[in-house]
Every structure is written in structure tokens, then in C-alpha cells.
């Protein structure tokens, strides 16, 4: 972080300079954002990463539930059929839109650090984060938020009892289902970790080996845990039998959770961030997600350009430069708002964006402050996002995670629940990258009860005639996927067009642009390279699940990422 102070001084002075010249041309007011239609579409749509989960949501809508009940059904079914991505042992963030009140709420069911958290245990002999500790086994797990979050949504926003919304998940866990090749593939990839814990192997490695296609996975312990939540609400998980199993099993395996940690877990409702861009209002995730702040910074920078007048290479160059600067601030300033004071007024201000824009050369890449010491790994297919619009216009965008595939890989025996490995999302060693190549500092250091910073960016985009519900998994790439999705929607694409669109990504460090095959034509690739950008092709990333609503024709479009065959977007 040797150059960090100079950047901060530079950014701050540019901020002041821009603020002083507040009549700058770029300060023209944006068109007033359209108010969202309070009348519903009359039919519903859901897009999720798994057809069983989408169908569970539709089933609950058919029983008279609203989008919020459907979200509980989708999330809990994903916790049964996509344990590699999300689950009761993890957390989530969700944007809710309550149509009749025209109100948006951010639900923060993110995990928290246990009270006994000790930064030292995550540092290896080489002074870098020890990934064995930070991503595997109970010490890598934060206190889960998903069960409390689902119970909270049922209690405050649902129409149906929690038990009814959990019923499809309980049924699938009890009766079993046949996992697809993608799921079996993730078992194979994680076989070594899973076989370390007999309780995990008993579920996913029948007879000690990777199951063959056609295998039926029944999860009676998980069904029992879900039933306890259905009967007792959050207490079915955080107290009594399940809680005791979670605490005892994790401590026996070297963990540090206590019953007091589970007792202390609280869901937080937070004000979403609102960004106005080209007549659209984007309502998105506030800290402890970094996504909304980063998206706001990028859009505020881009608002000063007329991208449509530029060729693809120059428009992309400016967007990459905006990403670079937003991720720089991400690393420096952001963390849990209950623990750190963040200069959000500055980061979200148009004047600040003017200052940042002034540092961008129109045709030359700015080298990032630091040279990378580690390459970010390929983002995998873990973490999940779903989108819902119901017939009344209620909406849910939710991203759910256990962090890496199967989280810590550790199941507390008797619960069927894989614990997350979200502790790796903290800045465990200042300046050193996490599993997604993200570096952090003081603001995101682990502290008892603190939420680790997230990239999850569930978002709504409201326009005069069109609305989008959008999000994706993909670690740090979540932010740029959602950003590019928002820009595509504003350019007129619907859910199918947004999910199919090719992607690129820059996160400040490592200083390179990740590109999906085919995202740029040869001329754009050459022009970007000539401007000094280092392009690196990587295998496709993300798993967007998007619903769009065109108010003019009253049509819904639900689409699941075409890169991933098991997803399902469905209009009812
Ligand atoms: O909260 C976060 O930002 C990460 N734990 C999300 C991890 C993720 O998206 C993995 N997906 N590919």
C-alpha cells in the first residue's frame, strides 16, 4: 500500500478542486427519475439458478403468496439443491420493493465475525493470509445470517406463514432430487476438503466417492433443521438443538463459536443507495456491500461523458478507468457501517466523480497504484442470485452466499448445514488479496460481531417505462456484471439480452482487464491494448438471473444466464 496516501491526497484535492468549481458543465441535473408503477403486471416472473428453486417460488405464489414469500421458497430450496452456492450456514443480501407503498428496503442478512475472532490465526508463516484457515473448516465461518433473514422477511413482508414458504424446500430435502452434472462437478472439485469431514462426506460422497449421474440426494438432517425453523422461526436455528449442534461440532473441530454469538445475530434493515443516471433510478446495495458504492462511483464518472458518441474502444476505456478508480476506493474505505465511519457523502458525490474523471486520460490507461503480487483466481460457480416480480409489482433481488464452493466444506453433524467460509472476505492481512484478489485495509479488518465486506449487489433499476431486477454471483466481478447489466438495460436490453451479454472486468488490482471470449472485436481489442490496457481472456464468469418488466406492453421477461444450463427464468 506504499502509494495509497498519495492517491488519497490526490483524490481529496481533486474533490476539493471540483467542489470549488461547482458550476462545472458536468453538474447539470439529471432528468428526474421515473416513479415506479405501483400497479402490478398482473402476472409474475422468477429467475433463479435452479429450476427446482424457481418452481418452488411459483408454487408459493400459486398458494396466494407474494414476492417475499416466493423469495423465501426460492432461497430455502436453493439451500437444499445448491449447497455449493448458498445455504442456511451462509448469508444473503436482498432488495425488497413493496409496491403498494412504493418503498424499497435493503435486508442485510450477512454473516458476522464471532466474538472470539483472532486475526492472527489467519496469517500464514509467509505473512500472507493462510487460505487453509480462512477458507476451510469452522474457523473460516462467520455466524450465519440466512435463517434469521428468511424468518425476518416472512414476519415483516410475507403473506403466508413461514412454514408454508419453507414447505417446498423441506419436501425436496426429504424426498430427494437428482443433482445435475454441474453440482456433481463441484463435489469432484472439492472432494479433498469434503472428505476431511465425515459429516460432509456422509452427505456428498456416498461410499466415500464422487457420486455418478442419476444419484438421488436425500438430506434428512437438513429437512429436520428446516422443519425446526418452520416451527420456531429463527429460534429453530439460533437456539436449542440446532444451535447446540452447530456450536459443539465447530468447537470440536477447532472453531470458536459460542451460543452467545448465535444469540447476538441480528438482521439489519438498511436504507438502499439510490443513483440517478440518464433518467433511470438505480436502487442498490449499501455497505456492508461495496457493490452499490462502486456502481455509483462508476456511473457518476460516466455521467460526464457522452458514451454513445464514442467508438466502442474509447467508451470501454473510460468505463474500465472508472472501474479502476471505484475499486481503488473500495479497498481503502469500505467496511461494516456499524463499525467504521466511511466518507460516503464524498464517494457518492458528483463533485468527487468530477475529480476522478479529471484524472482519466481520454486514450491512455492509468497504471494502477500497485503492481499485483497475486493473480485473482477464476471466479467459480458458487454464490447465487435470484430475481422475482409478482403480479402486484412487489419485487425481490437477492444474492446469497456461503462464499467459496460448499463454504468451509464443514457440516455440523446432524444439521445438514454447510458452514460458510466468509471470514476470507475480511481484510485478514492489510493490503493482501482475498480469494477474489480484493485487498482491504483497516475499514474491513475483522472485529467481533462485525460484518465482512461483500461485493453482492442485488439491485433494481427504475425507468419511466421499464423496470429491472438484477444481480449475479462472481465475487468481485459481481459489481462489474451488475454495472454492465444496468448499462445494457438502460440501452434497451431485456432480461435475455442482459444475461447473454459478454462481460469484461477491471478491479484496480491486479491491473488488467479480464475479458470473456468475444466481448470485443479485433479492432477494439487492438485499440484498448494500444491505450495501455492489459487484456486477459478468462473462462466465462457469473450466473445472472434477471427479470425485466416493460410497463408499456406489460410484459415480463425472466432470464437465467445462458452460460449455466441449470438455471431457469420463468414467466407465470
Ligand atoms: O460476499 C461476497 O462478496 C462473496 N462472499 C461472494 C462470493 C461469490 O460470489 C462467489 N462466486 N462466484
UniProtKB/TrEMBL annotation:
UniProt entry keywords in alphabetical sequence: Acyltransferase, Glutathione biosynthesis, Hydrolase, Signal, Transferase, Zymogen
Enzyme Commission no: 2.3.2.2, 3.4.19.13
Pathway participation: Sulfur metabolism; glutathione metabolism
Region forming the signal peptide: 1-25
Reaction(s) catalysed by this chain's protein: glutathione + H2O = L-cysteinylglycine + L-glutamate; an S-substituted glutathione + H2O = an S-substituted L-cysteinylglycine + L-glutamate; an N-terminal (5-L-glutamyl)-[peptide] + an alpha-amino acid = 5-L-glutamyl amino acid + an N-terminal L-alpha-aminoacyl-[peptide]
Acyltransferase as UniProt keyword: yes
PTM comment: Cleaved by autocatalysis into a large and a small subunit.
Pfam families noted in UniProt: G_glu_transpept (PF01019)
Binding site for L-glutamate: 110, 401-403, 425, 454-455, 475
Positions annotated as active site in the UniProt record: 383
Quaternary assembly: This enzyme consists of two polypeptide chains, which are synthesized in precursor form from a single polypeptide.
Name under which the protein is recorded: Glutathione hydrolase proenzyme
